[in-house]
Amino acid sequence: MDIEVSKIVQGVEPSATLAMSAKAKELKAQGETVYNLSVGEPDFDTPKHICDAAVDAMRAGHTRYTAASGLPELKAAVVADYKARFGLDYASSQCVISNGAKHSIHNALFATLNPGDEAILPAPCWVSYTELIKLCGAVPKIVATQEQDSFKLTPEAFRAAITPKTRMLLLCNPSNPTGSCYTKSELVELAKIAVENGLFVVADEIYERLVYDAVPFTSFPTLFDGLQDRTIVINGVSKTYAMTGWRIGWLLAPENVAKKIASLQSQETSNPCSISQYAALAALKGDQECVAAMRAEFEKRRDYVAERIAAIPGMTAPKTGGAFYVFFNIKNFLGRKYNGVQVDTDKDWCLELLQQKKVATVMGSAFSAPGYARASFAASMDTLKTAFDRIEEFVKE
Ligand SMILES: Cc1ncc(COP(=O)(O)O)c(C=O)c1O
Q1: Cβ(177) to ligand 1 under 6 A?
Q2: In terms of domains, do 313 and 279 share one?
Q3: 322 lines ligand 1 (CB under 6 A)
């Protein structure tokens, strides 16, 4: 007898970014050198003082269940950090620590969306949003943004997408996959529309510490009074402290929502790893020099990658304002043969680039934006140099 998979789970697509990474790993296992620009994680090691805190936590016996919604000390540290950097007042009971920001997003959506509700999702958008919204039985309302607007949602497009079923805007700032970063005034316009239409906002700010050009980051609930009550902020240690494998993320939400999410998590997963929570605590409370150093290195690479793209005739990309991605237009390079292989779509292009030049990127269609590709610059300068030499060769041949 075949066990039938539930209707809701049947509809879930596998992560395309992970699929490209898997293909790159497969080539590597065959002995090929692969220049992997498909990954969404810092290439730095987790700073030593954070690893030491994890070892100390184990030795001190912090190896048991913690409170299901997270260690009180860690919640207090998150809340203190938001107060110190953004002037926001949250109670610890408004914070839930989870198994990575992805889990926090799932919790936020699951706790707030009912079947049939519409969630507005500016595209290009991160691969998991659409699937997580669908898992709640809700409907992702994908709103295309334009390259000439640096892929930012405009007030007009936002307004036009709202229907009586719309409940929520899911905004990723800085954005994966586009690297776009909203200014304060752009966010204010969007926030006003959300308020006028009775919507709440899930603000995924996981890349907020990785912003460039000395432009200050604006956290969504700081925009004007009252917005904190209709915003769920998502953040975590994965990208800021090179801690993707430790699986610690969090959300900050209105008290009633956070309390229900705490109950949900207590039934679903219990606490996130106790040792990782102590490591995250050390990350937040320790010296922030490691963050500054990683950010500065990413900015150098961002500049290098932008130069390389600008030097390829026919290839364009908006300037990356934050995160570690560049989202580039490959429409001029489709509809032709590469070494005898016909390449018509962004997916073909990325697969042939990997097959022929051993450079892994991710196709724009995985982010609901066909005709583009995403390259991550969370890779060494040497890797970036060789990868872009090869991309240049590939399109010129
Ligand atoms: C926009 C965005 N949000 C959330 C996450 C998830 O982060 P975590 O590894 O903490 O689950 C990612 C990771 O790629 C991301 O790009």
Answers
A1: no
A2: no
A3: no
